From TrEMBL:
This protein's name: Diaminopimelate epimerase
InterPro entries with a match to the protein in the record: CntK-like
Pfam families: CntK_N
Amino acid sequence: MKLNVLRADPAGNITLFVLDPVEKSRRADVAAQLMAVPEYQAEQVGFVCTPQEGGDGRMEMMGGEFCGNATRAFGLLTAKKLGAPAQVRIETSGCDHIVTVDTDLAAGTSRAEMPLPQWLRSVQFGEHQGTLVHLGGIAHLVLENVEPSQAVFDQAEPLFQDIPGLDAYGVIFLDTNTLHMTPLVKVPATNTLVWEGSCGSGSLASALAQSRDLTDGTFSRSYIQPAGTVTATAVREGGKVVKTYIGGPVTLGEPFETEVKG
């Protein structure tokens, strides 16, 4: 089967967008084949779909999860198709409402509204303590000043099993002195565990964890990740999170044709 695909680079979180329709039942296999091609260096795959709720565009991730970086990138791609408006409205998997994306094609940047957190909790496992952030279809455990390792992820993974409805989850290793952040993210539907070049929702989780004690005001940090930097912003009023955003650079490639089995 031949497919038209576009490679996007939102702050190093390499995403392939499949531009042709693919049935949901086939997406996991198609994504696995595309991610296995070394020259693509893809960390995830999104599927472009027909809008269903009046949005400017619709994109569904390979495991039905929400991905902030992919949403930012798809927002910029949609703006490019529509003649470069400063703002587009995007429908995306893992989110129950239309997401607003601010775009700047000339600068090659975009900023996406993010889902508000359902809750934040302090958790402890083994010798580690962290902040568990539930963002709806995705949750992250933010660990401060812990050496990144899959062993720590494996130890922490049971914490996610009691959260219903998760399409993806990750452990975010955050150095609070340098703001270097290393994300390790799992998508169960595709059985993928990836050290991501950058992670938008993980960046937001870090900002939320770091600003837990803020009652009113805006908290914004730029998190330096293995392949790029993402700026995450949380706005609080009366101790409640009322708005959240992530932003940063996006590079869009040109569409190309590739072939997958099946």
